[in-house]
Amino acid sequence: MDARLLACARLCKGDVLCDVGTDHGYLPCYMIENGLCKKAFACDVAQGPLNSAIAHIKERCLSDKITAVLSDGLDSVEKGDITDVVIAGMGGELIAQIVTRCDWLKEGINLVLQPMTKPDILRKKLYESGYSVLCESACVSGRFVYSVMQVTFAEPGYECSDEYLHYGFVKGRTDEEKRYLQDRAAKLRTAAQGMLRGGADTQTANKLLALSRLY
Ligand SMILES: C[S@@+](CC[C@H](N)C(=O)[O-])C[C@H]1O[C@@H](n2cnc3c(N)ncnc32)[C@H](O)[C@@H]1O
């Protein structure tokens, strides 16, 4: 369990976890073993990772509490008594597709999302689809820094500004959060400079440059 998955675990609230894209199944095993949930579903779109999860679950003697499911996103998962859904370690666009394709997520599910890339696209799609980000923090894993969001289906009571899309609700309260903001600013700068070099839309490039100067 790295800092990323630990940050996801901290944002789970209920008794039944569904981990989408579980890979080795580390998160559901950790959650059960630490009494953070009573039952879990470990889901993956690919049989290889799912087999690793099944092996890990067996090794930890947790087969009676964790069910492995082969599923593209949540397509083959029934809501049942699931309270928390974690989608971590995938790109922001893919996470957005998985969320918007599943209607039962609108029924009071606590969603924990951790995009590896394109958090701005995820924030935009969530906003447009009527999901609110309740809180967001940053975590460092290896050489990289990521955001982790707690999300629920509720009309967002905030503005979908460019600043929000690129920096989210990460406020720079911790070293990780400061690093996240600086990392996002550097990415915006690089994108803007690339646009200016390529002779593309200077208005957009200048907007990104202005945003990058916030941190
Ligand atoms: C990089 S791993 C992340 C594992 C773990 N969630 C984590 O954050 O450490 C991504 C996993 O997501 C799975 N995956 C990719 N697309 C998926 C989809 N559409 N539905 C379910 N799982 C998917 C992959 O097979 C892989 O096991």
Describe this structure in words.
This protein has 215 residues and is of the alpha/beta class. The protein has helices at residues 3-10, 26-33, 47-59, 92-101, 119-128, 162-167, 175-197, 202-212, and strands spanning 16-20, 39-44, 66-70, 84-90, 110-115, 131-141, 144-153. It has a seven-stranded mixed β-sheet, sandwiched between helices. Helix 4 (92-101) packs parallel to helix 5 (119-128). The mean pLDDT is 96.
What are its keywords?
seven-stranded mixed sheet; 2 domains; alpha/beta; binds S-adenosylmethionine; Rossmann fold; 8 helices; 41% helix; 215 residues
What is the CATH-assigned architecture of the largest domain? 3-Layer(aba) Sandwich
Distinct small-molecule ligands in the complex: S-adenosylmethionine
What are the low-pLDDT stretches, counting only 5+ consecutive residues below 50? none
- Looking at CATH, which topology of the largest domain would you report? Rossmann fold
Gross morphology: elongated
List the strand order in the largest sheet.
Answer: 3-2-1-4-5-7-6
Largest beta sheet, briefly? 7 strands, mixed
How many β-strands, per DSSP? 7
SSE topology string: HEHEHEEHEHEEHHH
Radius of gyration from CA coordinates: 18 Å
Tell me the structural class: alpha/beta
Q: DSSP helix count?
A: 8
Average pLDDT reading = 96
* Helicity level: 40-55%
The CATH C-level name of the largest domain is Alpha Beta
Total individual domains: 2
Beta fraction of the residues? 15-25%
